[in-house]
Design goal:
By secondary structure, the chain is mainly alpha-helical. The chain is built from 1 helix and no strands.
């Protein structure tokens, strides 16, 4: 019974670890996408016909 509980605990830990890694990846991607959008705004504004 202890072995079953330990194996289930390992699976739960792996699932939580994957969730954290996915969240970190999404946050990093979203931050870079936002920074790219801001850069694009500055680029377009610099080359606008004035």
């Amino acid at each position: 019974m202890t072995g079953e509980k330990s194996a289930a605990g390992n699976d739960e830990e792996r699932w939580k670890e994957r969730g954290v890694m996915l969240r970190v990846f999404v946050y990093i991607f979203a931050t870079h996408a936002f920074a790219g959008f801001v850069w694009l705004l500055f680029y377009v504004g610099q080359h606008a016909q004035k």
